[in-house]
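Hey all, quick one. A colleague (J.T.) asked me to put the tetrahydrodeoxyuridine job into the tracker so the inputs and the structure tokens live in one place instead of scattered across chat threads. No bug as far as I know, just bookkeeping. Sequence used:
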Amino acid sequence: MTEKELCAAAMAAMQKAYAPYSGCCVGAALLAESGQVYTGCNVENASYGATMCAERTALFGAVSQGERRFAMLAVAGGKDGRLAGEFPPCGLCRQALVEFCPPEMPILVVTGEGAYKQYTLGELLPMPFGPAHV
Ligand code: THU
């Protein structure tokens, strides 16, 4: 699984987004160390607060399938199904990722067809509160 393939999986997942309220469609593709890819999209709700982000949909789906270790994440987002520039993971998703992913894990933020910017989880959430604190 290459970086570009993972970005393509995130873009495909974005097409599944259920976002009738914000119009922001987000897709995520999470590569587990097992080699399996888990995708997710945002799923909005009329109560707004029950909305789930694409990244956590992918992460929780993977953990539900028995995965605990991850190698790479790609995220794609945009308004009304069309790719926007950078659509980085929100703070809640960064925190959820820290539970299972190392700080050096690459996060690919899709910027266009076949284009992405690469960060690490540690860059996006420095000095995290993690399992070691509890
Ligand atoms: N959203 C995500 O799916 N991931 C993020 O990291 C940021 C926000 C979704 C949630 C909501 O459906 C829409 O984008 C607007 O906030």
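Adding what we noticed when we looked at it: The chain has one domain: 3-128. Residues 19, 22, 24, 26, 42, 44, 51, 53-55, 89-90, 93 surround tetrahydrodeoxyuridine (CB under 6 Å).
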